[in-house]
Write a structure and sequence with these properties.
It is a single chain. By secondary structure, this protein is mainly β. The protein has a single domain, classed as Glucose Permease (Domain IIA), CATH 2.70.70.10. The chain contains two helices and 14 strands. The strands form three sheets. Strands 9-5-6-7-11-3-2-13 form an eight-stranded antiparallel β-sheet, with no helix packed on it. The chain has a three-stranded antiparallel β-sheet with strand order 1-14-12, with no helix packed on it. The chain has a three-stranded antiparallel β-sheet with strand order 4-10-8, with no helix packed on it.
């Protein structure tokens, strides 16, 4: 049996070569930051879907929040997710936007699951006037869909602050497998 001085039996020893990968998530659109606690939908406010922040969009252009692969683009175009390794970022445009069945959403790039995306690559355009008229809120949650796999989550922007598309909004780390 090997003993290391200062380590009790049964204690977890994390080796120095256990690397973490830092993921910085960018705003997928320009607008005002809203913390999830203030999003008018319990699924987002109570973090049932994941953790992150929301943005009240001021422009109708939506970009990839990270470099990675398109994980999913909903048929109704109201939401998409991009993955980088085991991290998956979900962007859900507006509250109750599923009911619009694609009205007001235009995908600007031919994509399918697995399509490689660059950070800040334009993915869709949204008619904000249509959404504002038909939805209870334009709040757009930007979430870590698989939050259980992440560590060191940190929001980088204050609630109410204005962000441009591409500004860093939160970061987290994942263990390199």
């Amino acid at each position: 049996m090997c003993r290391i001085k200062g380590i009790d039996e049964g204690a977890e020893l994390v080796m120095f070569f256990d690397k973490k990968i830092l993921i910085e998530v960018c705003a997928p659109c320009a607008g005002k930051v809203v913390y999830l606690d203030n999003v008018p939908d319990p699924a987002f406010a109570e973090r049932m879907v994941g953790d992150g922040v929301a943005i009240e969009p001021s422009e109708g252009k939506f970009y990839s929040p990270i470099e990675g692969q398109l994980e999913h683009l909903f048929n109704t175009k109201h939401a998409f997710s991009v993955s980088h390794g085991i991290a998956e970022i979900l962007v859900h445009v507006g509250i109750e936007s599923l009911k619009l069945e694609g009205e007001g959403f235009t995908v600007v790039k031919e994509m399918e699951e697995g399509t490689e995306l660059t950070k800040n690559e334009l993915l869709m355009e949204v008619d904000l006037a249509t959404l504002k008229e038909k939805l209870p809120s334009l709040n757009t949650p930007v979430l870590i869909a698989n939050y259980d796999d992440v560590q060191d989550f940190k929001v980088l922007v204050a609630e109410g602050s204005e962000v441009a598309a591409g500004d860093k909004i939160f970061q987290f780390s994942i263990r390199k497998k």
